[in-house]
């Protein structure tokens, strides 16, 4: 089961008006996903990155029956719920909370958002599998700059080999 460990960066949570929760993928870490911050327009955001025990949120593919990933999946969902509650307790409303995840973290982010459906500020899921060329900085910046939503903005972007290109310019060439 997971233990709550949140790595923070950016504007201190109690001083921020918006928060971005970044969820790492299998084999990644909270520290790794926080390295994206300088590439995104999140200067005034509190950044929170939960760390999965053993660097994986659940043991099997999201395509497997849900019970095959229990109790790890439910424990991971609980960690995200506790992280969102920390943000809410700091005075930031759901509309000021943005969720993003990479790979297994993307699957977990979407599962969490589906189970805890409210009007978040935005949701972005980045995962492997595409063979297209995508440049995502303008998309992410547009999401993070929007202040009002009639519903949560959700963008699902599929990418392969993200880390190899991310440090250059956040444009993906597959």
Outline the secondary-structure elements.
Blueprint: E1 6-10, E2 18-23, H1 30-34, E3 45-50, H2 72-89, E4 97-102, H3 104-115, E5 122-127, E6 134-135, H4 137-145, E7 153-158, H5 162-166, E8 171-172
Parallel strand pairs: 2-3, 2-4, 4-5, 5-7
Antiparallel strand pairs: 1-3, 6-8
Number of continuous helical runs: 5
What's the β-strand tally? 8
The secondary structure category is alpha/beta
Outline: globular
What strand order characterises the main sheet?
1-3-2-4-5-7
Oligomeric category: single chain
User: What's the story with the biggest beta sheet?
Assistant: 6 strands, mixed
Helix-residue proportion: 25-40%
- Output the radius of gyration: 15 Å
Order of helices and strands, N to C? EEHEHEHEEHEHE
Taking pLDDT < 50 over at least 5 consecutive residues as the criterion, the unreliable ranges are 128-139, 147-174
Mean residue pLDDT? 80
Give the terminus-to-terminus CA distance. Answer: 36 Å
Strand content: 15-25%
In short:
This protein has five helices and eight strands. With 174 residues, the protein is α/β, with parallel strands linked by helices.
Structure in words:
- The chain is α/β, with parallel strands linked by helices.
- It is built from five helices and eight strands; from the N terminus they run ββαβαβαββαβαβ.
- The chain has helices at 30-34, 72-89, 104-115, 137-145, 162-166; strands at residues 6-10, 18-23, 45-50, 97-102, 122-127, 134-135, 153-158, 171-172.
- The strands form two sheets. Strands 1-3-2-4-5-7 form a six-stranded mixed β-sheet, with helices on both faces. A two-stranded antiparallel sheet has the order 6-8.
- It is globular, with a radius of gyration of 15 Å.
- The N and C termini lie far apart (36 Å).
- Residues 128-139 and 147-174 have low confidence and may be disordered.
């Amino acid at each position: 089961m997971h233990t709550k460990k949140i790595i923070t960066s950016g504007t201190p949570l109690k001083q921020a008006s918006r928060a971005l929760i970044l969820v790492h993928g299998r084999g990644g870490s909270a520290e790794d996903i926080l390295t994206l911050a300088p590439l995104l327009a999140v200067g005034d955001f509190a950044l929170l990155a939960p760390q999965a025990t053993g660097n994986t949120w659940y043991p099997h593919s999201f395509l497997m029956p849900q019970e095959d990933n229990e109790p790890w999946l439910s424990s991971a969902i609980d960690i995200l719920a506790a992280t969102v509650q920390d943000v809410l307790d700091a005075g930031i409303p759901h509309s000021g909370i943005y969720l993003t995840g990479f790979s297994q973290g993307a699957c977990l982010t979407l599962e969490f958002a589906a189970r805890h459906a409210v009007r978040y500020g935005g949701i972005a899921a980045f995962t492997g599998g595409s063979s297209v060329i995508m440049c995502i900085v303008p998309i992410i910046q547009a999401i993070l700059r929007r202040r009002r939503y009639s519903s949560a903005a959700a963008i699902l972007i599929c990418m392969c080999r993200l880390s190899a290109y991310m440090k250059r310019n956040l444009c993906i060439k597959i």
